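Example record

One chain of 134 residues, shown exactly as stored in the release files.
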Amino acid sequence: MDLTVVAYVIYLFISIGLTIWVARTLSRNGRVFIGDVLQGNEKLADAVNQLLVVGFYLVNIGFVTLYLRSGEEIVKARELFEALSAKLGIVLLVLGVMHLGNVWVLNKMRRRGIMERQQTPPVAPQGWTAPAGA
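Predicted structure tokens for this chain:
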């Protein structure tokens, strides 16, 4: 069997496995942030979380498949490991950037929700007072 094909199979297996692991981790832990932003609306938090996971899968698996092609033919075991390390390193960097991007967006949403809650008075206004001197 051609070592280039072996590299493709190993690359796809590891890359897709890593993508699934990161997406599940984001989904499980990000739900807490989303629930906080949406003020306890569990149904909406679950829906938003699921949409974020689907988008994460589409972007990352799309990148993994586009980055599959190798410009060089792999003949030796050493070349196989070098090609895999380069490809998987890039995939890990992209996953890390996507992860940090997701955390950043969730944190921005959470902070905005906290600020909105702080601006809302704890008790509704009871009446209206005319300005002095009018």
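Notes: The chain has a mean pLDDT of 83.
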